[in-house]
Specification:
Uridine Diphospho-n-acetylenolpyruvylglucosamine Reductase, domain 2; Uridine Diphospho-n-acetylenolpyruvylglucosamine Reductase, domain 3; Uridine Diphospho-n-acetylenolpyruvylglucosamine Reductase, domain 1; 3 domains; 5-stranded antiparallel β-sheet
């Protein structure tokens, strides 16, 4: 595991100016769903919005900023992430109902909690969020979706902090959303989100949530150490079908293997490292390309440094 030699010095500089947690050379392994990965040079959990702005404004010039949210759809490489890794804490997990079935919430609010809140307030159209791991801020960034719905279907506006600590309000029309991606940059932080559902009944919403949950349990390895869907679905095809068609369903590298339940999920069945997981994914991409002519695109975010992938 790599340690960053200047982490302590950077931490001391930051601690004199901010109130939140500053953790130098902090292991990210147990924060990620894969349970792999190296250290963050600095892990920062801001106390509140003003604290986050302060850090962004006083950080040394050229310092890398990485936001990892709930780390559910994420692979942190084995040598870790340089610079400052930010996780938004409890002060960013608020939620409030506005008029006309509109909800405003903080960027670190769990999607499942947002779905539960909508159920409690008879707001329909948000049941699909119950099956998307992670936070609403991260979900807006990558335009997460499930069961034929995606975040951009319900988004009104989002408040974004750039890497310099400047706040910008962006409406749906100001942003570009595509399948599993948006025009929001990697160093931008979604600090709050306004979304809108529609008036519904508790019975109807519960039925949707139950149906979505049953589908997920029966088709996805939710009890395994995984990062969710590995590859984006190409136009007119499903990634899992291409993986099956190319004969990749039984591939593995060390303890990294393809899920028997859903072949577009890579799982850590024991003590895999990030390099093995990424190497398996790249092996799958290579074979699928050779056999089908389709170039699969990673859906899982891969961050930081690690051994080179040589195929």
């Amino acid at each position: 595991m790599k340690f960053w030699p200047n982490a302590t010095k950077l931490a001391e500089h930051l601690k004199n100016n901010v109130k939140g947690k500053i953790l130098p050379n902090h292991s990210l392994k147990n924060l990620t769903w894969f349970k792999v990965g190296g250290t963050a040079e600095i892990l920062f959990i801001p106390e509140d919005f003003d604290d986050l702005v302060t850090l962004l404004k006083i950080k040394p010039k050229g310092t890398n900023i990485t936001i990892i949210g709930n780390a559910s759809n994420l692979l942190v490489r084995d040598d870790g992430i340089p610079g400052i890794v930010i996780i938004l804490g409890k002060s960013f997990s608020y939620i409030q109902k506005l008029k006309n079935n509109e909800i405003v919430c903080g960027g670190s609010l769990q999607n499942k909690k947002l779905s539960s809140y909508a159920l409690k307030n008879n707001i329909g159209g948000l049941a699909f969020l119950s099956n998307i791991p992670g936070t609403i801020g991260g979900s807006v960034k990558m335009n997460s979706g499930a069961h034929g719905y995606q975040i951009s279907d319900i988004l009104i506006k989002v408040n974004i902090l750039d890497s310099n600590g400047d706040l910008m309000e962006r409406s749906l029309s100001d942003l570009i959303f595509e399948y599993r991606k948006s025009s929001i940059t990697d160093e931008s932080i979604c600090v709050s989100v306004n979304i809108r559902g529609h008036l519904s009944t508790r019975e109807k919403i519960l039925k949707e949530i139950s149906s979505f949950k049953s589908q997920r349990i029966s088709s996805q390895p939710i009890t395994e150490k995984t990062g969710g869907s590995t590859f984006k679905n190409p136009t007119d095809r499903k990634a899992w079908q291409l993986i099956q068609e190319a004969g990749c369903a039984d591939m593995s590298v060390g303890d990294a293997c393809i899920s028997k339940l859903h072949s577009n999920f890579i799982i850590n069945r024991g003590h895999a490292n990030a390099h093995q997981i990424e190497l398996l994914g790249e092996n799958v991409r290579k074979v699928v390309m050779e056999k089908t002519g389709v170039d699969l695109e990673w859906e899982i975010r891969r961050l930081g440094y690690g051994p080179s992938i040589n195929l």
